[in-house]
Amino acid sequence: MTPIDRLNAIMAKLRDPVGGCPWDVEQTFATIAPYTLEEAYEVADAIERGDMDELRSELGDLLFQVVFHARMAEEQGLFVFDDVANAIADKLERRHPHVFGDEAAKPDGAAQKARWEDIKAEERKSKAQHGVLDDVPVGLPALARAAKLTKRAARVGFDWPSTDEVFDKLHEEVAELRAEIAAGDLDKARDEMGDLLFVVANLARKLGVEPEDALRGANAKFVRRFGFIEAELAKDGRGPEQSDLAEMDGLWDAAKASERAS
Fold this sequence. Notes:
It holds the Pfam family MazG. The chain has 12 helices and no strands. By secondary structure, it is mostly helical. The chain has 3 domains: 93 residues, Helix Hairpins (Orthogonal Bundle); 79 residues, Helix Hairpins (Orthogonal Bundle), CATH 1.10.287; 49 residues, no CATH class.
């Protein structure tokens, strides 16, 4: 029995109404979807930390999610795991005509990725998805989806010429947000905050930066520097609640200086 056959057999047993696991039997596509997203994030986290042993484990957890969904689909007569594997194999061959067909390869990765996007656009037309934004997944993290939406729109010319115009829009959105906050209209402020974040995602896209990656890096930096603050305060037997903003801000600057020196 191959490892994937073993995994599929385990999944079938878990989903067996007689003798299986009650929790697994109760699950649906909708209830499992959040776990699928969580496992994908844990894969990204292991990669970011450079923990290859953890990555192996997390990839297994993510694969299990695929097996789980495929098993539920098989029970409903929709498709089986082999159909999933064949679908991605067909897609990869179709989207790499320079490898599996007679098309010449592009000169570099960027040009080849552009060709990939052209092929995807052709696929959307064949599936009656004629809108430029039709298949940008709603379930993506909002920041990542914003960048993908602007990228897709840019492919048909709906884009600012340079980052200068994006910065102008960024300043405009900040001013509008400040105005709504000053007016005390929190509902409109929320909308303006969304507009501001959307422009930030667009700016990231213009700079070739993945906004989710950038924000994850900022989160990690914040955790690291705040941990420095806690460690320094702990030397005096104190925690942040026994400090004040001025002291903690000074320690934050010390953390930054320490990072630059290392």
